[in-house]
């Protein structure tokens, strides 16, 4: 049994039986030759899992330590008997921490300002939950959820969210097909609708925002931008790095607890699909004792400007800054010893 693992995934070494062959490779260095005799791949976003990579392999499982799966050709995998498992919700508290610290850093007033959330999946729901617990007024947009009849909340149209919010934060998957594609969801027309002074936060996927249109509005001084995800990573737009108020190297969800959850999820996928025993010890995360969500609790836990200053100073080190990131603690969680 051979398993190929992205070497940047933390806490995963020495968790498989000794009779398995485990090969650790940087995600962008995993090739078709490497996977020919592999039974499973454990990856992140840097490995494009498609016919080119997998055609001549015997891979039965792809487990990604990420929420998103746009780096995986799921229809091709399904047609060829490959099971795909992701890690939904693993980094939701970490992303929420990033969103709120960035908001507060840019002058958001929780007592009078409105937060607009586009995308109400695991991350969007966590952001909304924290907002409600702090008494922040929220507008939520999610057409796919609404179409499915999931009316547990009041949905606003995209225009209503853009016009009525002081902060707009994006938490959608990257899609080009279907009834509600998200590719360039926020483009020139949408940016014109946004009120002057609005803070736009993108920690979902780079292609969700039209970067050319965004730069145009930032140059006018109409709005502020917090950018964690970029088109064409790791070759990011250097001009946008400078124009954004906060620019970070795709680390919004990079909490220690989030990484532990993701690693646990991919290990559980290996156990479920391949029947291999795995060691899950030390990967438990539990809430800290009776902590209440507050502005001070969140801002005391993390300062996004620290990461932004490092990327702005050396944007050519994007991939290095991401791969060597010192995982931060979430405000409400601590890992068990």
Please provide a written account of the structure:
This protein is of the alpha/beta class. 34% of the residues lie in helices and 15% in strands. The protein is built from 14 helices and 13 strands. It has helices at residues 32-35, 51-54, 74-79, 92-105, 122-133, 143-147, 158-164, 188-193, 211-220, 238-243, 256-274, 295-301, 304-313, 318-323; strands at 2-6, 21-25, 40-43, 61-64, 83-85, 114-118, 137-141, 167-170, 199-202, 224-227, 246-247, 285-287, 333-335. It has a 6-stranded parallel beta sheet, with helices on both faces. Strands 2-1-3-4-5 form a 5-stranded parallel beta sheet. Strands 12-13 form a two-stranded antiparallel ribbon. The longest helix has 19 residues, at 256-274. It starts with a strand and ends with a strand.
Layout of secondary structure:
Elements: E1 2-6, E2 21-25, H1 32-35, E3 40-43, H2 51-54, E4 61-64, H3 74-79, E5 83-85, H4 92-105, E6 114-118, H5 122-133, E7 137-141, H6 143-147, H7 158-164, E8 167-170, H8 188-193, E9 199-202, H9 211-220, E10 224-227, H10 238-243, E11 246-247, H11 256-274, E12 285-287, H12 295-301, H13 304-313, H14 318-323, E13 333-335
Parallel strand pairs: 1-2, 1-3, 3-4, 4-5, 6-7, 6-8, 8-9, 9-10, 10-11
Antiparallel strand pairs: 12-13
């Amino acid at each position: 049994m051979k398993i190929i693992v992205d070497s940047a995934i933390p806490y995963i070494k020495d968790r498989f039986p000794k009779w398995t062959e485990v090969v650790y490779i940087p995600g962008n260095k995993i090739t078709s030759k490497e996977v020919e005799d592999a039974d499973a791949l454990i990856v992140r976003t840097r490995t494009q899992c498609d016919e080119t990579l997998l055609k001549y392999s015997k891979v039965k499982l792809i487990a990604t330590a990420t929420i998103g799966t746009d780096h995986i050709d799921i229809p091709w995998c399904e047609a060829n008997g490959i099971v795909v498992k992701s890690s939904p919700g693993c980094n939701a508290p970490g992303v929420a921490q990033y969103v709120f610290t960035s908001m507060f850093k840019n002058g958001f007033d929780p007592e009078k300002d409105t937060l607009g959330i586009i995308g109400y999946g695991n991350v969007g729901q966590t952001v909304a939950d924290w907002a409600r617990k702090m008494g922040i007024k929220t507008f939520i947009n999610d057409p796919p959820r609404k179409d499915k009849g999931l009316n547990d909340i009041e949905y606003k149209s995209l225009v209503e969210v853009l016009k009525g919010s002081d902060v707009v934060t994006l938490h959608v998957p990257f899609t080009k097909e279907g009834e509600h594609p998200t590719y360039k969801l926020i483009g020139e027309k949408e940016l014109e609708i946004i009120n002057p002074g609005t803070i736009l936060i993108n920690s979902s996927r780079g292609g969700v925002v039209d970067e050319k249109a965004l730069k145009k509005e930032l140059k006018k001084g109409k709005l502020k931008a917090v950018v964690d995800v970029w088109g064409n990573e790791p070759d990011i737009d250097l001009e946008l790095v400078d124009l954004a108020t906060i620019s970070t190297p795709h680390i919004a969800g990079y909490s220690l607890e989030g990484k532990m959850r993701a690693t646990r999820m991919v290990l559980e996928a290996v156990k479920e699909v391949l029947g291999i025993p795995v060691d899950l010890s030390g990967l438990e995360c539990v809430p800290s004792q009776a902590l209440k969500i507050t502005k001070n609790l969140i801002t005391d836990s993390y300062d996004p400007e620290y990461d932004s200053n490092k990327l702005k100073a050396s944007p050519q080190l994007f991939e290095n800054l991401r791969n060597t990131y010192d995982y931060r603690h979430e405000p409400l969680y601590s890992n068990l010893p």
